[in-house]
Each structure stands twice: as structure tokens, then as C-alpha cells.
Amino acid sequence: xxxxxxxxxxxxDIHYGVAPPELCPTCKVLNAYVEISADEARGILGxxxxxxxxxxxxxxxxxxxxxxxxxxxxxxxxxxxxxxEGVFANEANHGLKYCPCRLCAKDWEEDLKIxxxxxxxxxxxxxxxxxxxxWCGLFVRRK
Amino acid sequence: MADLLMFHGRECPHCKKMMPLVEKLEQExxxxxxxxxxxxxEKNADLMRSYRSALAPKCGGQLRVPTFFNPxxxxxxxxEVEFEKLKEWALKR
Lengths: 143, 93
Prior knowledge:
The complex is a heterodimer.
Chain A: E1 4-8, E2 14-17, E3 33-36, H1 38-46, H2 55-66, E4 71-73, H3 77-94, H4 108-112, E5 139-141
Antiparallel strand pairs in A: 1-2, 1-3, 4-5
Chain B: E1 4-8, H1 13-29, E2 33-37, H2 42-50, H3 52-55, E3 67-70, E4 75-78, H4 83-91
Parallel strand pairs in B: 1-2
Antiparallel strand pairs in B: 1-3, 3-4
């Protein structure tokens, strides 16, 4: 199934997926999405406010992401600090927050799979593993 | 004896942890491991990518670091491993 771009006609939320959300998460209007081109999506997203995220804000974002989940951000602060440094170096040098413990294959779809946080819950280092963690160790199974 | 390769990342904690073990192995066994950093050196990254078909099946279908690779046998081992396991792998040629 091919993913496409969708725009909420009320509030201009952009969605990238095989189908649009039934309910717009921003303006809560039902059936508000219309399909748009990649250029239009880029124009809307690229022309918007330049929202940046500092390493500290990223850290807070992943803490919120992990809150209430079966995993948590690794309590080893030194390790986490090194990984976040790598994630930000990769974003600066290679465009996205790629995992510092893997490498881009120069295959767009494959490379999206290593953007942090990745879908590590399906990986062999985490799924069904008692002390499971993501490949880099940024997230670990909550004790 | 041909060199083995180690692909690693500067900000990868597992790679950092493996470095002393790699040095110990080199000193103990005479094996030489050519260390290639892949996130800050595009030539090294391209070299790793050129071995993707041999590396990915051994590393969860992806290019991951640290990865140790024998270009002669195309055998690879990836991740943080115990010293004895690394030694056994490096000497089994």
C-alpha cells in the first residue's frame, strides 16, 4: 500500500499515510482530509515556523513518549547523552535523527526505519527479551 | 593473514565499549582489525554499504554498528559481544 500526502481543509494539518485520519487531531473535524501532492505538502511544512528542538528538548520528548509504556529511556545518563549527541550530529550532517548505532543504506524507505525513536519493539533485541532494549540502548524494557 | 574490518560509530556506546577488547585481541593474537568510523567518514560509510548484502542478513536486516567483517569469507558478527566470542570469530578463518 502506497503512502500519500493528505491535508486537513480546515486547519492545514498534514498527514502522510495510506489513508487520512477520520478525525483531524488538531481541529477535531470529521472527514476533513483531502489528498495533495508531495510538493504541496513540502510547501506547507517547509514554509512553516522553524521549530527547532534542542538536545534537552529531545530528551524531554522521548521521556514523554516513553511515559506509561512498557519501556523507558535508559537510566544510564552517560550512555543516553552520547546517543543524543550522535542523533543530533546525524541530523546536522545527514538530514534526519538517524540512530548512531546503525548506518543509512541510502535507501529512503529503509533509512526511515532507523530514525530515532525507531520501531524497536519488533526488533530481536527487544521483542520477547526480558531485559530487552533497542539496538542502541536508548530505550530499555521498564523493570 | 588478511585484515578484518570493524565498522563503528563515534557516538555509538557499544562501539566504544568494544574498542579495548579489539585492542586486546590485536595484542594477544596478532590479528589486525581495520577500524572504520562510518558516520563521520563518507568513504568508510560507502565501504560498509558496499558489503550490505553480506552484512545485513547477519545484523537484523540492517547495517548496524559495531560490525566485524571478514572480507575474504564474507562472514560478519555484529553488536557488543564478549571477548571470547569475538576472539573465536576472528580466529576461525
